[in-house]
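On clarity, I found the account of how folds are encoded harder to follow than it need be. An entry of this sort, consisting of the sequence and the corresponding backbone structure tokens, reads as follows:
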Amino acid sequence: MMSFLWALIIGGIIGWLAGLIMGRDIPGGIIGNIIAGFVGAWIGQAILGNWGPVVADFAIIPALIGAIALVFIVSLVMKSMSKAD
């Protein structure tokens, strides 16, 4: 149970940092940050592997790179959806 809570915290921090680095808000607030962190970590680790420091089963550097890419893609999709209105 504690490792799951730790993973939620680290995933949220990764998603939050990705949003700060990109200068864009992630839709959904805290939940959006956690989802971006988890999905970004999955993408980053699938593409870049598990190198660098590992915290709560997240390889921090690939996870952050993946989360930044995810925030960028989501912001592009959200921008194109707002222009379609």
About this structure: The mean pLDDT is 85. The helical segments are 2-22, 29-48, 60-84. The two ends are 44 Å apart (CA to CA). The chain has three helices and two strands.
